[in-house]
Write a structure and sequence with these properties.
Radius of gyration: 18 Å
Strand content: under 5%
Largest sheet: none
Shape: extended
Length: 69
């Protein structure tokens, strides 16, 4: 159930996968008893991006060229 404080989703994103990739995802969801595929994909994608931004793209005082000198 969606709480009233969560923003409504109006933007659609589409991605095509092969039959093999779709089967891998479906097997994973079945194994871990995940019933909401859209929510799982959204959370998985956004958590990956967020983690990547925090670990690798963190702000620095110097640019990459200056740090490699």
């Amino acid at each position: 159930m969606v709480s009233p404080s969560e923003p409504k989703r109006h933007q659609r994103m589409v991605c095509l996968v092969s039959e093999e990739e779709a089967q891998i995802v479906d097997n994973y969801l079945k194994k871990y008893k995940i019933t909401n595929k859209g929510r799982w994909m959204r959370e998985t994608l956004l958590s990956f991006i967020h983690r990547n931004m925090m670990e690798e793209d963190y702000p620095t005082l110097f640019n990459e060229h200056e740090m490699r000198r």
